[in-house]
């Protein structure tokens, strides 16, 4: 594909919402193939084959459009770790234009779906970890994880004080019912597992939710202390009375963006 053709296509994609989820996944696969077909003129390759059809691919039995996109992205190796990448800096200008136009960068995908990638294995792991007790998610954003958990048969409640919208800097689409409610709602659902996904960096709400929670099982998707999720107080509360009880072996994260899906008990 020539750069001229790619640029013309980019001009036609002025709004990421013009692409359906299936079209976005197909475009990710197309651009990945184009990047892999054009070797880097010097140095080692910056991009590697996607997860799709490889040993790290996962079967999606409930319908997870984010996973369809992620599994088709090129992968990259960074500091001895590997993962899907949306850093298209070494691709030709036409590919970068199409990435921007379609919202295939991490910020665009995160606002469209979620800031942490839920793999099919992650949802199955949450189901096994929570068991019959159900889940309450605080700070659910557009409810993408809640939507997948409900589709998997997990009894899920979801709350967020801010509705998903184009003006919301974190979640622009609503995928399922998310009730209005802040971190204090965690106190009402001690019979459920508490789920926190990518809490805002240096924001106190995750610590308040964990402090208010009266149950004994936390499921947390995010970075560790000193990273870009939650605040220092959250990790102080976590370390003072909680012990890690497990982690999803199937969790996938963007290269260069550490993220783990872990379970904690007290």
TrEMBL record:
Report the domain of life of the source organism. Answer: Bacteria
Could you identify this protein by its name? SAM-dependent methyltransferase
What is the species of this protein?
Answer: Catenulispora pinistramenti
């Amino acid at each position: 594909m020539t750069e001229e053709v790619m640029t013309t296509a980019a001009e036609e994609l002025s709004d990421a919402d013009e692409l359906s989820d299936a079209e976005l996944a197909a475009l990710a696969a197309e651009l990945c193939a184009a990047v892999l077909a054009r070797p880097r003129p010097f140095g080692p390759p910056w991009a590697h084959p996607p997860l799709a059809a490889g040993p790290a691919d996962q079967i999606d039995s409930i319908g997870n459009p984010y996973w369809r996109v992620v599994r088709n992205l090129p992968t990259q190796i960074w500091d001895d770790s590997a993962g899907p990448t949306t850093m298209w800096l070494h691709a030709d200008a036409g590919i970068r234009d199409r990435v921007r136009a379609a919202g295939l960068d991490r910020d665009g995908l995160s606002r469209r779906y979620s800031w942490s990638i839920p793999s099919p294995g992650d949802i199955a792991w949450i189901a096994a970890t929570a068991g019959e007790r159900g889940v309450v998610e605080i700070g659910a954003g557009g409810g993408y994880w809640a939507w997948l958990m409900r589709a998997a048969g997990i009894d899920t409640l979801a709350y967020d004080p801010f509705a998903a919208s184009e003006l919301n800097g974190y979640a622009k689409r609503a995928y399922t019912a998310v009730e209005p409610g802040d971190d204090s709602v965690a106190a009402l659902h001690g019979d459920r597992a508490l789920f926190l996904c990518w809490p805002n960096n240096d924001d106190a709400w995750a610590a308040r939710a964990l402090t208010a929670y009266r149950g004994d099982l936390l499921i947390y998707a995010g970075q560790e202390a000193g990273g870009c999720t939650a605040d220092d107080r959250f990790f102080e509360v976590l370390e003072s009375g909680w012990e890690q009880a497990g982690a999803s072996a199937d969790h996938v994260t963007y290269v260069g963006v550490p993220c783990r899906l872990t379970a904690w008990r007290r």
